[in-house]
Amino acid sequence: MDLTLRLATVLLTASLLLALQPAQAQLAGHGGPVRAIAVSVDGKTVLSGSFDTAAIRWSLATESAEQVLRFHSGAVNAVAFLGDGRMATAGADGQIAIWVPGRPQPDRVLEGHAGPIAGLAVSPDASKLASASWDHTVRISSLIDGGTRVLQGHSQNVNGVAFAPDGKSLVSVGYDLTVRIWRPPDGSAEVVTVPSPLNAVAISPDGEIVTGAADGKLRMLSADGKGNGEVMASATPIVALAISHDGALIAAAAIDGTVTIVDRKTRSVVRTLAALGMPVWSVAFLPDGATLLTGNADGKIRRWNALTGEAIGSNVLGAPADPLAAYAGDHGAEIFRACVACHTLSETEVQRAGPTLAGLFGRRIASLPGYRFSDALRAMDIVWTPETVSKLFEIGPNAYTPGTKMPEQHIGSAEDRRALTDFLARATSK
Prior knowledge:
The protein has two domains: 3-311, Methylamine Dehydrogenase, Chain H, CATH 2.130.10.10; 325-427, Orthogonal Bundle (Cytochrome Bc1 Complex, Chain D, domain 2), CATH 1.10.760. The protein is mostly beta strands. The chain is built from six helices and 29 strands. Helix 4 (386-395) crosses helix 6. A hairpin with a 5-residue loop joins strand 26 and strand 27 (291-296). Strands 1, 26, 27, 28 and 29 form a five-stranded antiparallel β-sheet that branches. A four-stranded antiparallel β-sheet has the order 2-3-4-5, with no helix packed on it. Helices cover 11% and strands 37% of the residues. The protein starts with a helix and ends with a helix.
C-alpha cells in the first residue's frame, strides 16, 4: 500500500467545530485533516473538505464559516465550485453531491463510482464535472443534461484529474504510474508512464501538465504528453499541487508537512514554507497569485505569502489538549486512546468522524440521531452492553458489524477488554 494511503488511513480523525470564530489568517473549524480546498473565481469564498466527513463554505473577508455541508458518510476528498454559485463535494463514499448555497441538503447526488473519489475537476465552460476514483475509472458527468461517460484504462487507484484550459482534453493520474491524456469526443487516451505512483495533477494556463509523485518529484509534460522536465520538490511523497493563476508558481505539498514553491519557468525551487510538523493535504492559490492556502492535518486552513514564504497572520501551532488528561493512570482510558480520534465520550464535545459514545450502554446500534449510519448497521439488532462491546473487539468490527466504516482492530486480552468496558461505563454515563 502506498505511503500516502497508509497515512490517510491513520489520519482518519476529526470533530467538526460548529461555533466557528474568526482566527488570524486561519480558517479553523474542521475536526480532521483538510483534504481539499477550492477557491471561488472572485477569490472571496473558499470551499473545503475534510476527513471529518463535512465540507465548509468560508468567507475570506470575515474568516468565518458561512455554511457547513453535511451529507457524505466518509471523508470528503474533493471539492469544486461549479461556476454558477453551486458547489460539488465528493468523497470516500463514492458519491458526488451538488449544492446550492444556503440549502441544507444537496440539490442533486451523482452516483456510479464503486470506490472512493479522490479528485474533481470542472471543465472551463462549467458544463462538465470530471471525477477520479479508486475504482480505477474517471467519470465525466454533464452538469446540463445529467449524462455520464466512464473512462476506463487505469489499472489502479486514480488520484487526480484536471481539464486542459481549452477543455478539449482531460488528464488523469494514478497509482499505476501513468498519466492519461483523454480526448473525450472519441474516448482515446495518450498514455505516459513515469517511474513513481502519482498522487496529484494540475495544468497551467498555457496547457503544461504538472504531476506530483510518491518519489517527491514534480514532472512536467507538454499538452501532448512529451516530457518537459522535472523538479525534486521533497524527500517524501507529494500529495497535492496548485498552480498560480498566472502560471508562474507551483505549490507542492508533501506528506512531511513541507510545501515547496517552484518557479515553473526556471524549474527551480525558490522557497519552502515552514514545516508544520504534520502532513499538508491540500493547497490552493488565491487569484492574486501570491497568497497560498494550505489544508493541514490539524483541521486548519492557513494563509501564506508564496512570494516571500512568510506566514500571513498567526500560524503558530498550539499543543492540542489531551482529551483523556482527566483519566491519567486509568488502564481502560489508555486502551481507549486508540478510539479517541473518532469518538467523543460526552455530548458536550463536538462531533468527530464517528458517533459520540455518550450514553452508549443500552443504546441500539446505529440509532443515534444526527449521525449517518450505513444501511448495513441500521439493519442489525445489536444493543451496546459491556458484553457486546467486548465481543466487537474480540473478533473485530469487520466480522461483528459488517459494513462498518470503523478501522479493523482487535483487543486480544480479555483483561484489556474488561478494562475498556469498565472505563466506558464510567466515562460515557456522565
